[in-house]
Each structure stands twice: as C-alpha cells, then as structure tokens.
Amino acid sequence: MPSAIQVVDIRAALAERTFPSVTVFNRLEGRPRTLSFERALRAEVRDALWMLTKQWQMGEFRGSDAGSPVFAKVLIDTTRLTKYRPDDEATQPFEYDVPFEGKVERRPLPLRSGGRVASLDIRVAMGRYWLRLIAPVGSYGPAFVKAYPIAAPDPSQKSDADLCAQPEVWETFAALSGLAMDGGALYEYLIAGAGNHAYDGVAGIDPGDQSTIDAIDDCAARFLAWIERQFLLPPVSGDDAWVPPKLEYQFAASAPDQSGGERVYVAEEYYQGTLDWYSLDRDAETEALPPVGGSEVTGLPPDTPRTTIPVPVSFAGMPNTRWWSFEDRRTNFGDIDAATTDLAKLMFLEFALVYANDWFVIPQTLSAGVIASIGGLAVTDTFGERLWITAAGSGADSDWQRWSMFTINVQGDPGAPADTSLVLLPTVAKLQESDPTEDVLLIRDEVANMVWGIEKTVPLATGDTTPGIQAARQTLAFYEAQLAAALGGPPPPPPPAHAPIRYRVMSTVPENWIPFIPVHVDGSNRQIQLQRAALPRILEGDPNPPEKVQPRTRLLREGLDDTPAQPYFVFEEEVPRAGTRVLECFERTRWTDGRVYLWLRVRRQTGRGEGSSGLAFDELLDVPVAD
Asked: What is the DSSP string of 541-599?
C-alpha cells in the first residue's frame, strides 16, 4: 500500500524529524529463515562491530543526560515532637510508649448510660479478676459480691425498660444476679477519689487488721494496673480530643526548631481512622504551645553531615538498563490501557519507561516521631562537578504550581514558605477493628426540614449490640404491654368510624430516629446549627403525659448524662446532602515493645444520601367504611 506522505529527501526528513512516527526504530527483532526458533532466541553475537553499529543506530552514543552521581554529602536536620495538646485541654508531654492513634482517639469505657449499668461483660470480667486477686487474702469473695451486686431487673418498673425490653438482656442479668460481682462498680468507686478504698462498706473486714487492709490496698493497686493494661483509657481529669459538635478529633503537637522556636502542627479535621502526616497542617501563626508542667520530652542533638554513594532507584518491572538483557514478564507495561484523561497513569508510565534510570536514592534511617528536613545536599557527578541540590517543593506554600509529596500544608499565613520537612508520626501500620459498638447515620430530610440521627446499631446493657430498629420495636412493645397490665387489660377498641376521613395530628417515627432541628447560632440571625430534639412516646390509652424518647447510643446522648443535662449542637456543614455515618469501635494493635493496646475510638464516613422519615403533621386520612 503506497504511503500518503511524499518524502522528497529522506535523509533530511529523518535528521530534522519532519515526519514523527512511533514506528521508526521501534523494534529490533530477529527473523529466522527456518521453522525452528531455537537459534534465533539465543541472540548470538559474532561481530562486536555489529553491536557498536546497532548501538549507534539506536542513538545509544548520543549524550542526552548529565553525569551520574557518584558521591553525595547531605545534612539532615532532625527534631522530634515534644508537646501534645488534645483540643483545648492542657498541654502535656508527647508520649512515645503508646501508639499515637490510641493517644488521640481513646475514649472512656461506656460503663454507664443514662445513669444505668452498661457493658455488663466488662463489669463481670473485672469482678472475676478482683475475686481472684483477693482469694489469697481471705474468704472475702461473698462479701464483695454482696457489696457490689448485679441487680435483677424488675419488669413491672418502667425504669428497667432498657433491661427488660430485650429478652436476652433480661435473662443475662437474672442469671448473674446474686452470683457474680460487679467489678465495674468497684472500679468506678476507686477512681472517684484518692481516699477511696476497696474495703469501704464491705462487711466482714476489720479496719483494725492492718495486714488485711494493706493486702487489700495492694490488690486494689494491682486491679487498677490490670485495667490499664487491658484498655488504653484517658485519665479521670479528662483527655479527650473528640469534638462532638464537629464530629471529629482536634489536637496539636509541636517540636523544637533549630532556630530556638517551635514548629506547631495542628489537626483540625481528623476523623478518617488512619492517622498520618496528611492529617496535620503546619500552623504558621502559633509560635509555640503552652509550656508543659513537670518533665518534658527533649529534642534531638544536632546532626552532622555525612557522605554516601547514591543508589539507583529500582522497582518491580523496571526496564533493564543493559543492552542484551530481557526483563521478566511479571509487569506487562504494554498491556496497560490508559485513557487520555488518565494523566497520573500516563505520567507514571513515562517515568517508569523513560526516566527510571535518572533517579537515585540516598538512604536515611529515621526514628518514629522524628521531623526531618534536608539542611544541605551537594552531589558530585562522574565529570567531577559538584552541584547544590534544592528541594523541588520549595517556595511559597500558596504557589499552586508547586508540587511535592509527603509534605504538609501551611495554614495561617498565605505568604509563608512551604514546609519541606518529613513528619514521621509514631503510628502503627496495621490495626484490628471490632464490629461497631455504635453505628449512627445522620441524614437530611428535606420534606420534614430537619436532620435525623438514625441509630442503626445500638449497644445493649450486656455489652452486645442489636439493630436499632429492633431495639426500638421491642422497647415500644414493652411499654405497651406494661400499660395494658396497668389498665387491667388491653384498651377498648375505638368506636366504628362513620366519616370517610379522619384527622391525624402527627404521624409516628421509629424510636431509633432522633430528630435534629435547625436553630440559629447565638448572636447570629443567618448562621444555622443543628440541635438535638426529642419526639414523644405516644401510648394509646396512657393517661399520663407522653415521655420523650431519648437516644440509646453515646454518640447521640452527648450532654444528656451531665448534671444538669446540656443540649447538643452539631454544625450544619458536618451533615452534607450525602449524609454522615459515625461509628464507635474497639481498636487493637501491638506496639514496638510488643505490648498490646486496646482502645475505643470514633470514626466518620460519608453517608448514602438523603432520606425521609415520613413525619407529617395535620393530615386527613381516608378511612375505609365497612359495607
């Protein structure tokens, strides 16, 4: 087939690259003249001049790159984090003996909910361990079981609805009543005050027997130490970085600088569950965190320059730089299908196939919690030239053309220089996450003009979980059965309807749907925030005023257990049209010293869109009339 392009001077066209083509010298392969490919696949070479000619033909002798580096002298300035401040709490020394995720995310154990007993499984485990501790001291086990009992729920009392509405919870409490000890109650008493002792109020213990008193105090210290080993808990005074109105964690950390000041890093929107350098921002406006009382972690000594040999970058599937060598077939770059919009994939292919041998690595070992920055880098190439290398991401932080990786942003000062340091947080690479103990969906209901907090998974008093809709139905059925028993039987049926329509003041919503209504922010007539509200629990035939339905999850009970109870507000921007999902889970990991850490944390995800509760007011409903 003749070419559509007429080339008058082929030599000039090739030299000037007038007609670019991907088929010019694109492939060099042998063409065997026999049916056997064995000799052709040997790639036999008998003429060295032929090899040199082919290398010249493929442009191998054309010097297009600079010399390769042979020596590098580098100075890496290092410091480490020394201060930590959760939210607006007091500044404290930075801890390196615990995972940083656990330090930030840890929350208190839910031993109580609404003043009621919760997490019975943990309470019983604490009680069993305490009884084992005091067994060598004396036969005081029955006395502690009597002093810290597990009460059996009473189905005739409305206050025990949270224990009697679910049959499995009722049966568990009834089975353990009088037989097991509530170790959680003992733990709460011991941490409530420095002067509280385990033997206070326990019958059969003589206060004058000093040896027994000392032995029980020693058991109490071992008991508290055991709980601290089992769970990573915040101190009693408070150390919580979780900000309920924003549904996220907020904290700050700082490190001493070479100039004598501090580098302050802040995390204002951490909720993803994976804590790393991208969760932090450099705060250019804050010069230093407040001083720490007591012992403080010190920085690192000054570094010294070192000379090393740069190592070429290597990766799986990298093209071999030697002429007569074949790459393995584990990475097939020819099979990559990239569209014209896959810029990242195309850039990676260009790097891997064209510029892979132009990159070199200078290895440097850094400790966890270190902030490293290159103070100076001088490279000597094969031609003997010494070059001063600057960071590719240097310049103003607000420059949109600046490109860098593994560096954090600078906030507060638009003209601040970019922070090219590398922050290595003392975090773990892998976490084991439990099933959610609480699962809440915050969705927008445009018809009702409000936000609903749907309790998808709620905790039971035994420590197990159940679907929120199932718990809501069982609770409502328990109240209806209790009301029927109080009235001496089921309420009489309503009289037969003669009108074709009837008026309904308000429709019903499941009890696991907690309303959030829009209210004005104090001092503003435009800004809106979401306030937790409550729906009445309407029981047919109940002569008493209806009670308010309270949430069962700790995520939505924020402020209800305070004395006095406080309202709970959520910023409107935290619940977009897609909604928000908030989960509370246990996390488990092993730290560098081999110790296992377990803590309770909260993380947030994007929701699945808007929803409708079906809540309506002032309705006219059709009533079918019997024939």
From this structure: T--SPPEEPPP-STTT-TTTTSSS----EEEGGGS-TT-EEEEEEEEEEE-TTS-EEEE
